[in-house]
Structure formats: structure tokens, C-alpha cells
Amino acid sequence: MHRAGWSDFGSHLTTASYRNIMAAYPYRTQTDLVVLAPDGEWVASALGWYDEVNKVGLVEPVSCAPAFRGTGLAKAVNIALLHAFRSLGATRSAILPRGDRAYAVPAHLYRSIGYQPGSRTRHYTRN
Fold first, then answer.
1. Cβ–Cβ under 8 Å, residues 84 and 30
2. Distance from C-alpha of 8 to C-alpha of 40, rounded to nearest angstrom
3. What is the pTM of this model?
């Protein structure tokens, strides 16, 4: 699903690397969600990481197959992930999209769910 959702942005995820993700702490199957079309095609997904000490869920990554964008499925899978976090005891959640003007659609999606912009990460490199 990730490769389909990120196909126009470039995805390097492989079956082997996803197995490594699933083996990493704190991976949980109940926070790795997929939306299926009526024909069984995987069309949207959201992976969440729950920090039980701080009671915070981190949403990363989210994807939606290009043919299904704009249908509300990315929003639905995100909301389902928030419910999964709550069932685990989360009191807060975070998502860290780019959020710049060139990447406005995800920012709009996350604001529609109730997320508010927070601090930004800046990367500096030496020329």
C-alpha cells in the first residue's frame, strides 16, 4: 500500500524493509491500519507508533492510492488510528508532515481532523 500511495513521490519501501519496521519497537499491529476497497484492493493506510510512557501516538506514514485520493479514505484511516491510540491510553498524538506550500494537501487533511501546526524542523547543510 505504501508503494502505491507514494508512487508519484518515490517510495523505496520493500517487503524486507517493511519486515524490519514490523520487528522494530514499538510496532503494534493494532496501529498499522489499511483501508480496503470493495474488491479487496488496498487503497489507504496509516501506521502509528505509540509511546506508552508519554501516552503519545505518532502518525507516520499515511498513504492513499492515487485513484482514491480526495475520497475521504486518508481522513478515515487517520481517524481510525486516533481511536486505536486512544484505546491504548494515548492522551495526545502528533504527525510531522512537511506542511509547506508545495505540500499543502496533507496539511489540509491533518487540519481537518483537528491537528494544529506546531514547531517546524529545519535542516541545515553546509554548501
1. yes
2. 22
3. 0.84
